């Protein structure tokens, strides 16, 4: 989708006005998924250089009453949920560079008040998000066919959670239980033709920046399409080469065998993940959904484990300014004999005794103005443990308020 630049302030304002917390289409077109970052093509050569630079971001803060936690960690406090800033430069037609900084990232999620409480990785307070060069329209065909390339550090295009994890895109305050997300260095091709497209990425696969500890790469494939004008589907696959710590996160913890299934001498581990997700819009009701499967191998494939996750999220737009949202999500082995360590950003590190963690969240939002949304939410967690294991408190109820702002 080609766009022309306007002066920077007007362009950013237009992009922010186009964002809608309850939109159904977000994220399925990987070449255009984020309206704050897909700010268009370059103006004519006579425009001033300042028109080629755009800045923006978002911030979210609020208050929570969370507890008692499954791990007995109780919180009643004010929270800075996240702050994001980005700069995009477009020196020539269809050529751009973007850098994204999180001075305050997730903490490590919405109801987390300290970065260490749930075993968050080092550097979670301030870290580099995306930083890449983008070449648009490397090839074009017909009226809408195109290929775009990203080279650098970018969102791993797996699944649907990461597309709507930012506070300004998430109609609720909390995330899903699985919440799979991450950045990595590599190359990504976005292919679009009509109402369908694909994202293909090859990345280092290691959590350390500009590092690949084994030489084995990660591969991601995402296919998406729109049907009947109201149904959007996205199928994703992510293959992880052997490494000690993969580039993706599950909630507040690194996505690797030791973190998910336990074990102190696992060494290099590999795996794969598969997800079907999407959204359906009917009148004022938009429903997001996904279901996925994880497979992990460790110790030269002598140990194999798997886990399942899913979520469904109906959003009802009541008026132009008001909406209601419900999300039911779960993750686990759902088997008595095999536990899982869910790195949940609300309940902390659950150990390896969790058969499943289920969450239901109910929230409402009010758009104070096109850039600011007020949110309120009540959320309940419930954990099921494996046979013979006792949970000190396997239920919790949380309340939260949040202000999310785009700029």
Q: What is the CA-CA span between the terminal residues?
A: 23 Å
From the helix content, strand content and strand pairing, which structural class follows? Answer: mainly beta
Helix residue percentage: under 10%
Label the overall shape.
globular
The appropriate CATH architecture is Beta Barrel
Structure summary, number of beta strands:
20
Low-confidence runs (pLDDT<50, min 5 residues)? 1-46, 69-74, 107-124
> What is the average of the pLDDT values?
76
Strand content: over 45%
The largest pleated sheet is described as: 16 strands, antiparallel, barrel
Q: Would you give the CATH topology? A: Porin
CATH hierarchy class name = Mainly Beta
Main β-sheet, spatial strand arrangement: 1-2-3-4-5-6-7-8-9-12-13-14-15-18-19-20
* Count of alpha and pi helical runs: 2
CATH superfamily: Porin
Q: How many domains, in number, for the residues? A: 1
Topology (SSEs and partners):
Layout: H1 8-18, E1 53-66, E2 75-92, E3 95-104, E4 127-141, E5 145-155, E6 180-193, E7 196-203, E8 218-227, E9 231-243, E10 248-250, E11 253-254, H2 257-261, E12 269-282, E13 285-298, E14 303-317, E15 322-332, E16 343-344, E17 348-349, E18 354-369, E19 372-385, E20 395-406
Antiparallel strand pairs: 1-2, 1-20, 2-3, 3-4, 4-5, 5-6, 6-7, 6-10, 7-8, 8-9, 9-12, 10-11, 12-13, 13-14, 14-15, 15-18, 16-17, 18-19, 19-20
